[in-house]
């Protein structure tokens, strides 16, 4: 059985994952408005992944006999100064999520909740990937600049992302 404190922390994390999903869909909408279909495609897949993260926590809380309580999701940012600025936000957000997962893990350690520690290991690994892919795109954007050919090529590259 999950402790009340851990159940609350997991419900908070479900909210953060749904917010991530909502934020990336908002970023996809921005990309569509900028005529960058490859960016939009990448962000929509990311949005689906985030939904999957939320549902992984949802399933886990239920499996442990806990109670899922969904929380309000705030309005995500809709406009960005540029695609680079948007990817700076992606990276910042992923770093925020990593910190949040780490805090959850610390809580599970303190409570000697081994099952939650094992479940969170998947997320700890996932966050390494999430930060790496955001920072790779951000670095490319910074190097290539945001004009013409280079941006178009990056957009084409992002269009090829498959579901991982
Ligand atoms: Fe982007 O990893 Fe979940 O939130």
TrEMBL record:
Database matches in Gene3D superfamilies: 1.20.1260.10
Major subcellular location class: cytoplasm
InterPro entries: Ferritin, Ferritin-like, Ferritin-like_diiron, Ferritin-like_SF, Ferritin_DPS_dom, Ferritin_prok
Keyword entries, A-Z: Cytoplasm, Iron, Iron storage, Metal-binding, Oxidoreductase
Catalyses which reaction(s): 4 Fe(2+) + O2 + 6 H2O = 4 iron(III) oxide-hydroxide + 12 H(+)
Ferritin-like diiron domain ranges (all copies): 1-145
Classification via CDD domains: Nonheme_Ferritin
Domain of life from the UniProt record: Bacteria
Record-listed E.C. numbers: 1.16.3.2
Keyword Iron: yes
Pfam families (alphabetical): Ferritin (PF00210)
The family this protein is said to belong to: Belongs to the ferritin family. Prokaryotic subfamily.
Task performed by this protein: Iron-storage protein.
Record-given protein name: Ferritin
């Amino acid at each position: 059985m999950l402790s009340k404190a851990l159940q609350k922390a997991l419900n908070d994390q479900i909210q953060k994952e749904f917010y991530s999903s909502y934020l990336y869909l908002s970023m996809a909408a921005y990309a569509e408005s900028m005529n960058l279909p490859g960016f939009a495609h990448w962000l929509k897949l990311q949005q689906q992944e985030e939904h999957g993260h939320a549902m992984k926590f949802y399933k886990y809380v239920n499996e442990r006999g806990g109670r899922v309580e969904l929380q309000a999701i705030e309005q995500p940012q809709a406009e960005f100064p540029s695609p680079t600025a948007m990817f700076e936000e992606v990276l910042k957000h992923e770093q925020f999520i990593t910190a949040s997962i780490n805090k959850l893990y610390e809580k599970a350690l303190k409570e000697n909740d081994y099952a939650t520690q094992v479940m969170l290991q998947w997320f700890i690994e996932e966050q390494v990937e999430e930060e790496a892919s955001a920072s790779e795109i951000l670095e490319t954007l910074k190097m290539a600049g945001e004009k013409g050919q280079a941006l178009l090529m990056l957009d084409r590259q992002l269009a090829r992302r498959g579901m991982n």
